[in-house]
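Request: How about a record?
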Amino acid sequence: MTRILASLALVLALGPLAAAQGEKVDAAQIGVLLDFGYETPEIVEALGAPGREISLVAGDLEALEKKGADAALIAFLKPHAPAPKARPGLTLAAILERWRKDGDADALLAEVEASGGGYDLSVEDMLEISRARLPYSIVRAMKRKSPPKAPEKPVRPTVLTLDAIVRMVHDGATEDAVLARLREETGTFPVDTDAILRLEREGVPLSVLRELYARRTRQAPPTEEVAAGTLTRRENAPVDPAASAAPMSFEVYAPRGGGFSILSPAGFVRSERFTGRKMLVQMVDPNAAEREDLPDLEFSILVARSREGERGSLTPENLEPVARKIMDGLTAGFRQDGIVFIAKSPETGYLAGRPALRFATAATTASGTGHVGASHVVFGEDGVIVVSYSSRTELADLWRERLETCARSLALGTARPVADAAADLVEPGPLGRSRHLFRVWKDSLQRFDWASYASTLEKGIDPVATRRTFVERALELARRRNRIELGAIDIEAGEIQYKVFGLEGKTTGRLGLVKTEGEITALREN
């Protein structure tokens, strides 16, 4: 899923290129990808899409190197570039003879780089090069033309420890190889949260983390060996199969530099990726069963910032075309992984005080497991935000509402003004201030605008519990198409009454008025 969402950011930033499945891609378009700050794996994935042809001319590789293309990207593009004219006969013996004869390092370096031959340098060759005092710049050019050596097979550890798992990953062991070695261990492991986080920082795949967490020792306290970074096998308590059914708690997640905050499921394993103007956060439930294709439970946020000159296009009328392109990108990405993904027609609404679209989604993996969820798409101040979640079909009844609550709690930046311009003209006196606070409170509920809603409440509120209550109330209003109207205001009693009209009739509610130094400054939820 991470790979699919990361490639989706290319669709967001480079729509014309991402849609041009039958067109040629030249060096100028590849340069745009480099300018946007995308990493080599993402560029290679975008360029390698079926039906896409890479068209390069002489000098393009050198130009892309100057733009910042690394060796891996140049190696991928090289077969698509015209081959340089080789100068036959430039063997190691010829190079050494030329060097001893005229000693022109620059000219000889140019000859080596233009040569079409390869140099499989042996130990004896390197000794002869050393005796001839051949400049290292020429030796380095020869090494670049040497045939690649097969990577060494990662060492298989006999005793499995945290450090051994990290070494396997760093030595290039595949995810399947690490899992296979881990599954040879029959006991449980005393893995605590700190150990899981350390492994995640070292690059250990999420599937391995889930395997370790699922087989952790539950009743044994951490030992000195755990603190030292080792795993000791235990032959005790199995994992509780109902772990995913435990009551859900929330926490506020607000990454530095992310420009947003949101409720997230407490205890989910979280990974963050920053690439250029993109940020991707993926959260999965470590207690859920491991899957080869899609996690049983997943919650993710993708932020793709636009360039400054393009931010004028982040308007409500452009939201649906962009959102549909996002869903098309997801569908194509899932298809490549053998997953059938369906996004239903979007529902219009609000998220974080802005117009938004919500797509109900469903997916079926190659192994036959079903998953349901939703994707919310909204424009922020400087880009596009996609908040998505999915759960295995058997868990949907338990988790759908919980994950939807997290998605709807998204807040961007600071509080936004009330939509009606006239509402910003606060009437003088306590009645005018009370009416103004109520308008902001009501509009915030209708627009799922937590930042504005929180600005109307007294200080010291519980940010998690109050935010959860806000989302649940806003969802109830939206689903029942209820309408809120202001009732009586009693300044002396410090209370506002309001009425809620819906298909089921009329109900009433009350809000408290908070006074500071005799002035009405906030509301209090009763």
Notes: Residues 4 and 336 are 9 Å apart (CA to CA). The chain is about 40% helix and 20% strand. Residues 1-7, 12-21, 218-246, 415-424 have pLDDT under 50 and may be disordered. The first strand starts at residue 24 and ends at 25.
